[in-house]
Amino acid sequence: MTGGTRAVVADDSHFMRSVISDILEEGGIEVATEAKNGREAVEAVRTHEPDVVTMDVEMPEMNGIEATEQIMAERPTPVLMLSAHTDENADVTFEALDKGAVDFFTKPGGEVSMEMSRLKDQLVDIVSSVARVDVGTQSSTPRAGRGTSGASTRNRSYTANPTLVVGSSTGGPKMVEQVMAELPREADFRVLVVQHMPEGFTGRFSERIDDRSDYDVREATDGARLAGGEALVAAGDRHMEVKNYRNGRLRVKLTQDPPENSVRPAVDVTMRTAAAVIDDPLVGVILTGMGGDGADGIVRLKDAGARTIAQDEATSAVYGMPKRAVETGCVDSVLPIDEMANGILDAITTEVSS
């Protein structure tokens, strides 16, 4: 049971509304009402004041993006986008996140009712987690644009050949984009990003980070090499292993080994293999997210001599992954998102001049 969580379910398909409502009700989440378009969703939020809204992306009269924007302006309420598995939907889903949605969950294709029931525990978990997010705090989080680093502009000298491994889940996309936007190219990190995100969305996510960052960012492919000033985003439904490291260049291997911590890609896989292979400076970061993925990875990185950082509870959409990492006793610093880039740079700074 989830302790009185109330939801509004918005979808233009009567069948899909029924499936989602049944799953949530079975999981202990009360469905206050259903809405068949964005306009009805906005009205339902006014009337029922729910804890969370599950929002379809494409709907008649008013789509999910417009509805999310209006809800955030009128009565900020956590919104979980339910997105179909298409490239076009990937674009609009990220746009909805920009408008204030907390996260998204991909609606299965094919035999919808069969697949939805298979995913029902995940859906109940994410709706419950999103319902607890303080969207008043989340939606006001600033993000630097490309070339306008939010990190301190002190003159720093950096250690050579550092690698940064970032792990995140629920609420993470905006946080990853902010951190990457604030990292100066001069720090010369090799960056590995593991964001729990399905296949079909990680490519668009990497493009968004590339647009906002001074780093060259791309979706990981099997055998991809990474040098300073570059970043790889783990591909959806593939674990990203660090296969080897030589002369400041690393190479990754993608696998479809079984999920770890119920997820693929798993943060633990990338952190564990980075700790085993990389002998130059390492920094590990755990951002907002549900569950415990990354906790073991942080232990492995710390044992390998890395500096480790976790996002604080106040600025995390969901304080699950960072909390579990902190509980290991292997996290060096706990920082709010606006101080994260500076904390990462401090980990590789050898000298600061005024």
Structure in a nutshell:
The chain has 354 residues and is of the alpha/beta class.
- Would you tell me which CATH topology of the largest domain applies? Rossmann fold
CATH secondary-structure class of the largest domain: Alpha Beta
Amount of helix: 25-40%
Shape label: elongated
Number of domains: 2
CATH superfamily of the largest domain: Methylesterase CheB, C-terminal domain
Radius of gyration: 20 Å
Number of beta strands? 17
User: If classified by CATH, what would the architecture of the largest domain be?
Assistant: 3-Layer(aba) Sandwich
- Helix/strand/pairing class, anyone? alpha/beta
Record the strand order, biggest sheet.
Answer: 9-11-8-7-14-15-16
- Mean pLDDT over all positions: 91
Domain CheB-type methylesterase: 157-351
Active site: 169, 196, 293
Domain Response regulatory: 6-122
Catalytic activity: [protein]-L-glutamate 5-O-methyl ester + H2O = L-glutamyl-[protein] + methanol + H(+); L-glutaminyl-[protein] + H2O = L-glutamyl-[protein] + NH4(+)
